[in-house]
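tool_call: predict_structure(chain=1)
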Amino acid sequence: MQIGMVGLGRMGGNMAERLLRGGHHVTVFDASASAVVASAAKGAEAAASLEDVVKRLKAPRTFWVMVPAGEVTENTVAALTGLLSKGDTLIDGGNSNYKESQRRALTAAAVGVDFLDVGTSGGIWGLENGYCLTVGGSKAAFERNLPVFQTLAPGDNHGFLYAGPSGAGHYVKMVHNGIEYGMMQAFAEGFELLAAKKELNLDLAAVAENWRYSSVVRSWLLDLTAAALKEDAGLESLTSYVDDSGEGRWTVQESVDLAVPAPVITAALQARFRSRQENPLGGRVLAAMRQKFGGHAVKKAL
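tool_result:
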């Protein structure tokens, strides 16, 4: 099958390579010329522009966009929508907001183009392990592009799902990432609690490795934690700064809009906010109040 891949960051480049390994013809474009050259060295056909990608593929065409959510995705999808023809398929595999995907699907449908929103999970390990895919949009377009999803997924019959109408793919991925926030925070708090019991002198790497086998909390996140602790027992090479890429915020906002409680995910998101603050005002206000009402000791800023 012929596929146009737009966006060759770490994940997009790996996806293009996995498609090539699966026997597909992949034409690639990225704003970074070096990324295009690197992909071409692995067997992809290089294109010089979006227009060039479109010209190089025979209709009906499939384009997979793998660029950062937000303005870059908006501009790329808009440009391709204007270049494609009736019967073509345009796939957004990034972490776009599902509401934006629903809007983009309507715009594409107006010119006869099928827009599929595909929640993609697997990170940098997807090249070898495959990607978990949730697809929203036309079921006919999903079935027409089944060979693509089967190649990217861990197996021909699992790891990919037609989730429902436009927006469903990215909505499921959004909630998936919200759950991920909560799981990661629980592991982080648990290992900090283990380390705090100094008199037991617990080996965190050994505990993580032990939990990986038959325990209730065994998971890929635990596997990654065990690997990190094995490399650096106290994780001294890192700071506690943790960013968020948007999906957790959207998940929390959906819980508010739908009046569905999500306290764990919300707390995990708030913990990430706090991790990025150094000596935050809120903490200083707490210290000031305790000193004023009870004369409690405070630590003065240097």
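agent: The longest strand covers residues 114-121. Proceeding to next step.
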